[in-house]
Each structure stands twice: as structure tokens, then as C-alpha cells.
Amino acid sequence: MRSKQQLSAAPENTKKMSRKAVANEYSAGSKATSRVASPNGSSRPSSRNPSRIPSENEDTDLDSLLDFADDEVNNEYWEQEFSDVVTNIVDRKRSSVQGREEAYAAFDRLSKFHYVHDELYGRVGELTAAFCKSLKQESSVRETTLALRALELLALSANDNTVYENVEPVLTRTIRDSSSNLVKSSAIRCLGSCAVFAGAGEDGMLDQMNFFLDIVASYGESISASHDTDCIEAALTEWGHLATHIWDLSAESEEAIEIFAEQLGGNDTGVQIAAGENIALLYEKSFSPRANFGEDEEEDDEDDEAEEDKKNNQDEDEEALLNYEGPRLVQRYEPYHDTPEILNQLKSLATAHSKRISKKDKKSLHTNFISIYTSVEDARRGPMYNTAINYNTNRHFGSKTRVKIGRDGVVAVDRWWKWIRLNKLRRLLLGGFYVHFNQGNQTVLDSLPLAVLRLDSETGTGQWKTDKGRKPQDTRRFAIHHDEDDGE
Question: Is the N or the C terminus of the chain less surrounded, counting Cβ atoms within 10 Å?
């Protein structure tokens, strides 16, 4: 990949080897370890739900996960509470581990459910230093992981591009040297967040993508977390989120897909889904609007241009079926040399029936990989694309994934880059997403610049509008569901 630094921590005798070679070296041990760890083929606790995409009959209200959501949203004195919490965090002279844990937990809670940009003014440097001190001391796993989450939320709300350069060395050291794999995986997610939200720039993001890809290729060995699925999944998801912010990944696509395809053969559902989503994203990125082609450079080879036009014309019948609004998408490059093999792997996971896989994981694999397979087969199709024909329009029903924001807003998530960014914000903010979205958190709006469909409460119809700066009406509604009415 294009990077200014070599961030890999691979052993000396593998430095000249490709990531694929390193991956093969560790893959056998990884699969064996996974099987020993779990008799049903999953190395995660059975209570963990790896699902990324809800089922077609599922309506997931994220705020229902939080018992204190109502109390926090209606907290009239949150500004004063937040000010007191910040003061306690910055003043560490008489603080205890338990006291810092409580202060960080309060900071995380208030930062999720309130847009604290103004309250952070002039305090970002002090808070960053306090959080980093906790990372360096690592007095307890809970304090360290809460400090990492606080750093993520600080990066999301402060809109301060100096944060990344101050925390990157500390986070990288934590990922490599921490004795806790839970801390390592949390630090990976924090580093990804700070890179995107706090000023890494494209070169910095590419460096971190390189770092995360090394973690995946070595099955965690490069950070002394051998076969730890939490670390591998974190590296995969953060790589994907970073990738959505890089315009051209043509040079990186081949190697990355090869490494992600290796992860499809593992036994952890969360890792498999994260790898599959990244593959779908890279295939999606190989397409771009036809209107943008040739604006900055002249086509010198007329034969190549004619051949491309012929290939595109062969897709006209399929294009007419696509339920996609916007300029026609045209493939600019082949993301991987052996797409049929990738499709075979994806199809196998979409129809997995092994008795070693739990019923819950099997359902998750089927739902997610049917969606991923459909997109890789034709990258113009987004998440949960429905290929059934709507006979009223003679077109596919298309992507039916919707995000319900408040009582009157619905957002269509019809591209993988949108879905991956949405998942990132969901993980960070949960039910607080609507507050940040509605109160104009610029980082959130820049990350997910989507239009909101204002629905008429009587007719159910509406118009697409940009939603900025409006005060929240109902912060307890941020649900994801799939339309089924059109398919009846």
C-alpha cells in the first residue's frame, strides 16, 4: 500500500515476504486454535451477536440497549455535570483508579447523548493529556478501555485536528505493548477513530490502514495478540472505515482482497462478516460515476476506450433494472484477479449449514453474505439489494435498507461506504446519534452526508431534505429496518 512508514511488526525473517505469505504462515495455526476454542466453530462467547445487518423482519431500536437513555436525554443539568466531570478528569492529584473510572464513564455517557463541542472549548489539550496518561499507566483494564472510548468521543465532538498527532504514538504503543487483548482491540478502534475524525489526513489514514492490514494478515501476531478474534475484527472494521475516506484504492485492492479472503475461511462469524464487508466495499470502489471519467485526463488509446464502451453497453439491460438514482456507474478497474473464486467463497458462507455453527451465527452468516455476494456479483448493488422485479416499474426493488431517525426521518443506506460509516457511528453513539445529527455535529454530518426523508404523518409520503441544525424531537428513535411492502 502507499504509505510513508513501514508499520509492520512482523519478525525479521518475514520482512521481505508479502503479507499473503505471512498470512499463510499463521493461517493453519489460527484455524486450529479457533476449533479448539469453540466446539461449534466460533471462538466468541455465545452471547455475543456478530450480526451487522438486521433480518428482514427485524426493527432494531438502538436506544433500547441503554436503560438510562430517557433520563440522560431529559437531563436539564448536563452542562454543569459535564463541566464538573471535565474538572475531575483534568485534576488527577488526588484521584484514585475507581474515581477515574467513574469520571471517564460519566464523560462517555454525557458525550454520547449531548453534543459537547462548546463545552470542550479550551479543554481539549488537557483532556487528551489526561486520557493518554491513563493509557501509559494502564492501572486497570476498565480505566484504560474507558479512557480509549473517551478519546474516541472527544475526537468526534471536538473538531480539533491536533488530537491525532498527539495521541497516535501512545495508541500505537498501547496496541503493541498492552498485556490485555481487550485493551489492544479497544485501542485499535480508538486509533481508527482518531485518524478519521481528528486530523490524520490521507497519508496518515493510509499508514494506519497498512498497520491494520498487517494485524489481519498475521492473525494478530504482529501485535502479540496471536489468533485474538477481537483484535482481528477491530482491525478489519477500522480498515474498512478508513477505506471509505480514501478515494482511490486501485493500487491496494488486490492485496487487501486476498488477505480478507483468507479470513473468510476462519471460524469466527464477526471476523468473517467484517472481511466480507471490506471485500464488498473494494468492489464498490472499483466503480465510479461515468460523468467523472476523463475530466482530468485525456484518453489516448481509442481501442481501449472502444473496448470499454462495448463492455459497458453489454450491461445496458442490467442497468435498466437497477433501482439506483444518480449518474451511471462504470467499472474503472478489476479489484481482484479471481472474482469467481471470491464469489464461490461468499456463496459457501451464504449457504453454510455446518453443525459446528450455532443457529444464531448461521442466520447471521446467511443474511450478511447473501447481501455481500449480491454486491460483489454486481458492485452497483448496495447492501441488502433485492433483485426481485417490481412489475410496476420493471426494475429491481433494489436496496431497501433504511435508517429511521426520530419520528419523521428515514435515510436510505444504498451503498457500502454509507453502511460502514453508519455502523461506526452506531457503535460510538448508539441512541445519541440523533442528537449529534440534529444539533449539527459537523464531524457526523461530514462522515454521513445523507438526506433525510421528512415523512408526512398522515400520508406517509415526504421529500428528501438535508437535516442540519434542527433541535431533536425524539432522541429515542434510531432504528434500522428493511422495507417489505414493496415486495408484496
Answer: C
Q: Could you read off the pLDDT of 158-178 as tens digits, one per residue? A: 999 999 999 999 999 999 999
Residue 221 lies in a domain: no
pTM: 0.78
How deeply is 304 buried, as exposed, middle or buried, from its count of CB atoms within 10 A (0-12, 13-18, 19+)? exposed
Whether residue 440 lies inside any domain: the answer is yes
DSSP result, 108-133: HHHHHHS--TGGGTTTHHHHHHHHHH
Q: Which three cell numbers stand for residue 444?
A: 457526523
* Torsion sign across C-alpha atoms 11, 17, 19, 23: negative
Instruction: Give the domain range for residue 175.
Output: 76-113+118-158+162-198
Which helix (H) or strand (E) element contains residue 452?
strand 451-455
CA pair distance 252, 101, nearest whole angstrom: 40
pLDDT above 90 for 283: yes
pLDDT the model gives residue 70 = 58
Number of domains present in the structure of the chain: 2
389 within some domain: no
Listed in order, strand segments (DSSP E) in 217-363 are 287-289, 329-331
Distance CA 396, CA 390 (A): 6
* Model pLDDT for residues 233-265, shown as the tens digit of each residue: 999 999 999 999 999 999 999 999 999 999 999
- Using a 10 angstrom Cβ sphere, with 0-12 exposed, 13-18 middle and 19 or more buried, the burial of residue 433 is buried
Strand partners, 287: 331
Residue 239 lies in a domain: no
Report the Cα 447 to chain-centroid distance in Å. Answer: 11
- Which residue do the cell numbers 433494472 mark? 321
Quote the cell numbers at residue 70: 430517557
User: Which CATH number characterizes residue 126's domain?
Assistant: 1.25.10.10
Q: How far apart are CA 452 and CA 411, in angstroms?
A: 5
Question: Helix 141-158 crosses helix 163-177 at what angle (to 10 degrees)?
Answer: 150
Alpha-carbon distance values, 68 to 71, 72, 74, 432 (Å):
5, 6, 10, 12
The predicted structure's pLDDT at residue 139: 96
Question: Which of residues 198, 215, 249 is at a domain's end?
Answer: 198
* Residue where a domain stops, chosen among 147, 177, 198: 198
Q: How far apart are the first and last CA of the chain?
A: 46
